[in-house]
Specification:
17 strands, Rossmann fold, six-stranded parallel β-sheet, binds 3-phosphoglyceric acid, 14 helices, alpha/beta
Length: 395
Amino acid sequence: KRIADAGDLTGKTALVRVDFNVPMENGKVTDDTRLRAALGTVNALRDAGAKVVLMAHFGRPKGQIVPEMSLEPVAEAFSKVLGAPVHFAENCGFGPKAKSFVASRPEGDVILMENTRFEPGEEKNDKELSERMAALGDIYVNDAFSAAHRAHASTEGITHFLPAYAGVTMEAELDALERALGTPERPVLAVVGGAKVSSKIDLLKNLVTKVDKLAIGGGMANTFLAAKGVDVGKSLCEHDLADLAREIMEIAGKNECEILLPVDVVVAKDFAAYAENRTCAPEDVAADEMILDAGMKTVAQLVAAMGQSKTLVWNGPLGAFEMPPFDKATVSAAQAAGIRAKEGKLIAVAGGGDTVAALNHADAARDFTFVSTAGGAFLEWMEGKPLPGVEALKS
Ligand code: 3PG
């Protein structure tokens, strides 16, 4: 169901779930893609005469109030993007205080609630919290495709208490993904990197049954290298996932999916921009060194794989791209993919907060066929899994 199905919204309050889980450094938003993605829905609802109450999560505070994970700085950043004031519901939670705050604001106002994950019931999809959230509005709109793989109170539970609709970006993302990847042109190359190893590694089990090649980069690659017996020194690596990584490699083998791991890596002793560094084989990383980027031989391997593929699906940077010069592999590979996509030789689809930031940093995002705001949700969609946040909008 779409916003257009909601009828007359004059004087109504629309509760909108957005994904404002944006990259942030020292309290400043460093990439506003996800903020811009919310504009279509927020403006459509305001134009229709509704008051807009935004709900979002930020980070993983696990039901605790963590001041550094407050959405307050995001309210200011979104206000700039929107070109209108955004009122932050400070210390309101989702109870009576929140209700009277929302009621006190005039029609057409935009309000941002505090981090939904400060509530212990959010990730448990608690019914009582869903009901308290629902009490803040007349209709519910989900525009957070990137959080739709989570069955949480603000993405799924709430739909049992309010008429629920898909937002403009949610709809556009689903349409674009279906068009590009519904029946992908083969061979399909997937690139999965980034630092969120434990939350993404499970998805690879299924992904290797769907794609022809899987290139693994970033922290994820270190975990796979370690699982193969390579000593990765001080690198970001989840050693307890070694068995799972081996299982994934086995499943890939059975499904004729080739796994590409880094063949050279850039290492440093300090996790800092411009830290003294060297390039070596993964087997030659010293005990006091950490892998911060892939080397150029690895990039060449990846670019060659792109040349043999018709479709590229990319989630997660190949190194610590936010700290130069450890952005080189990600930037070079992104630009190579962008050029092939622009020339019509590759359908290149990317997703994920950090990935979008990395593609923007490489100035390659506009050349990709489609860039989704979603990371985990995008991969789960790729696997063909039903997304609870999307399913809840269907009935
Ligand atoms: C994301 O950044 O991919 C989404 O906001 C979901 O965040 P999560 O992985 O912490 O649920």
